[in-house]
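step=encode ok
step=design start
structure_in=
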């Protein structure tokens, strides 16, 4: 039975297929939808039937704690205004 690549829609023959997440891909078609990096079977995530590398998946669809802050102000100004306790002189 010949399956069809979900990316390009062309037939995928047994000798050339990369099987991942229950689908058969051409080796060159199995790449991240966002950054276009080549992916290895089973080492990626899928969202809306599109493959993503783990990095891009976490950036776009993961929990908010994995996203990097966009500015220094989002880190919190309270941490920079603290005075170290050990450096006080009581002369």
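sequence_out=
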């Amino acid at each position: 039975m010949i399956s069809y690549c979900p990316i390009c829609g062309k037939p995928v023959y047994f000798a050339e297929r990369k099987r991942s997440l229950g689908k058969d891909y051409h080796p060159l078609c199995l790449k991240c939808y966002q950054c276009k990096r080549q992916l290895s079977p089973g080492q990626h995530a899928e969202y809306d039937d599109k493959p993503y590398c783990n990095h891009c998946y976490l950036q776009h669809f993961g929990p908010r704690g994995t996203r990097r802050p966009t500015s220094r102000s989002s880190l919190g100004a309270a941490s920079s205004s603290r005075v170290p306790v050990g450096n006080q002189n009581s002369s």
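step=design ok
step=annotate ok -> The mean pLDDT is 78.
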